[in-house]
From TrEMBL:
<dbReference type="Pfam" id="PF23733">
    <property type="entry name" value="GRXCR1-2_C"/>
</dbReference>
<protein>
    <submittedName>
        <fullName>Uncharacterized protein</fullName>
    </submittedName>
</protein>
<dbReference type="InterPro" id="IPR036249">
    <property type="entry name" value="Thioredoxin-like_sf"/>
</dbReference>
Length: 116
């Protein structure tokens, strides 16, 4: 989790001790595993999910139209282990461990004169 957002998450959840997972639905903080389990068992979770926007059926099969996927280099942790130096930040993905979808995200093309 990016430390820059810690204060914001603590304010949203009303809790100084944050545990994962932290589930948000439509921008609303739902809770963790136990809260989601209780909502599911009471039938309320389905109602919360049904209010979410429907994904375009023509959306990318790989990312579901989100345009980003988990980095395969670090499995979304944004950390790579090297035997000699330990953990270092992954240089392939963003701070959230995501990369642009290779199937649908626009690919940056080099100008002809820039290619080797």
């Amino acid at each position: 989790m990016d430390g820059k957002f810690l204060d914001e998450l603590q304010a949203i959840t009303g809790n100084k001790t944050l545990t994962l997972p932290m589930v948000f639905i439509g921008g609303l903080f739902i809770g963790g595993v136990e809260e989601v389990k209780q909502l599911h068992e009471s039938g309320q979770l389905k109602g919360l999910i049904q209010r979410l926007p429907v994904v375009d059926p023509r959306a990318c099969d790989f990312c579901g139209g989100l345009r980003f996927v988990l980095c395969q280099t670090c499995d979304g942790s944004h950390k790579v282990y090297h035997e000699k130096i330990g953990f270092t930040p992954c240089t392939v993905c963003n701070i959230n461990g995501l990369v642009k979808c290779p199937s649908c995200a626009p690919v940056r093309r080099l100008h002809r004169e820039c290619t080797l």
